[in-house]
Specification:
318 residues; alpha/beta; six-stranded mixed beta sheet; 10 helices; 15 strands; elongated
Length: 318
């Protein structure tokens, strides 16, 4: 379990993380979302003791990270797939991590096999593709067989097979009762992977809820109906007190109604339906709606992106 209480990080006058309080629980995959510049990477770095909070507290299974003996046995993390010695082989890179954390040598071969790198175990990491580097970083996170896993953009550089593999892996780890915390900008992938969402914007907590509740609370759900007897259907729906919006495509959009009820009304009045389909927003649409006021960098179709407001080049941007 990861527990944050009032976690705050300030760089000069800039507040990167602002009083974050939430808990990442075991047994589920928790997604960590936010626009560029929201403070996600800074938050994850503070979880691992790489940045010191200005205020607040973060604990890993009840203890501060710097108090963990052999930390890879408690929490494994992938924050930067390039954080490795390029002159070392994949095997020796993992062996160094294992020896520094009291992990048996045999575990190195196990995780290399898990991530599919056994065939290149003796090759130097500097020759690896982005996807191979990601797999090696994931192997490092798994090395200590930890109860807690953190992944920042784990699907970067992976092919479709690799994306399916890491998605399945994260779900499997959560099913074993482990704590899995993953940050990604790929909304379609997050929608398939995460059970729970923590969303931040401009360093502040915007949402801490289940995937289903997040989409429901931040999107419009409706039922789309098409009929050759459109005007008759409109009259029937209005008489039943159903709110209807006429779309430009000729379909009717019924807010707050259930498809079953609309179908029964149509059947009672012998109205033919060509379409009766419930519509729900995607995670991406719900995310865009919630974070619209928290986006720091806006791109425009008629010109270059305009920063709002500008940060220095050394600031957090993820």
């Amino acid at each position: 379990m990861i527990e944050l209480a009032g976690l705050t990080k300030r760089y000069g006058e800039k507040m990167a993380v602002d009083d974050l309080t939430f808990t990442v629980r075991p047994g589920i995959v928790t997604g960590f979302l936010g626009p560029n510049g929201a403070g996600k990477s800074t938050t994850m770095r503070m979880m691992l003791g790489l940045d010191r909070p200005t205020a607040g507290d973060v604990r890993i299974d009840g203890r501060h990270y710097d108090r963990l003996k052999d930390p890879l046995k408690y929490i494994g993390a992938l924050l930067d797939a390039k954080a490795m010695h390029g002159g070392r082989s994949a095997y020796n890179h993992l062996l160094c991590l294992a020896q520094s954390n009291g992990i048996p040598r045999g575990r190195v071969a196990e995780v290399l096999d898990t991530v599919g790198l056994t065939g290149v175990a003796r090759k130097k990491a500097k020759g690896f593709s982005l996807g191979m580097g990601q797999r090696l970083g994931i192997a490092g996170a798994l090395l200590g067989d930890p109860r807690i896993l953190m992944f920042d953009e784990p699907v970067n550089g992976l092919d479709p097979e690799g994306i399916h593999w890491i998605r399945t892996l994260m779900k499997s780890l959560a099913a074993q009762g482990r704590t899995v915390f993953v940050s990604s900008h790929l909304m379609s992938e997050m929608a398939l992977t995460a059970d729970h969402l923590v969303v931040i914007g401009q360093g502040r907590l915007l949402a801490d809820t289940s995937m289903a509740e997040f989409i429901e609370q931040n999107s419009r759900s409706y039922v789309r109906v098409r009929s050759p007897q459109r005007e008759r259907l409109l009259d029937v729906l209005h008489e039943a007190g159903v709110t209807v919006v006429e779309s430009g495509s000729g379909a009717l959009e019924v807010d707050g109604g259930k498809a079953e009820h609309i179908g029964e009304l149509a059947a009672q009045h012998q109205i033919v339906l060509h379409e009766l389909s419930p519509q729900q927003a995607s995670l991406e649409e719900a995310f865009m709606r919630l974070t619209a006021e928290s986006v720091e960098y806006h791109a425009h179709s008629d010109g270059p992106a305009e920063p709002r407001p500008a940060w220095g080049d050394g600031w957090e941007r993820s």
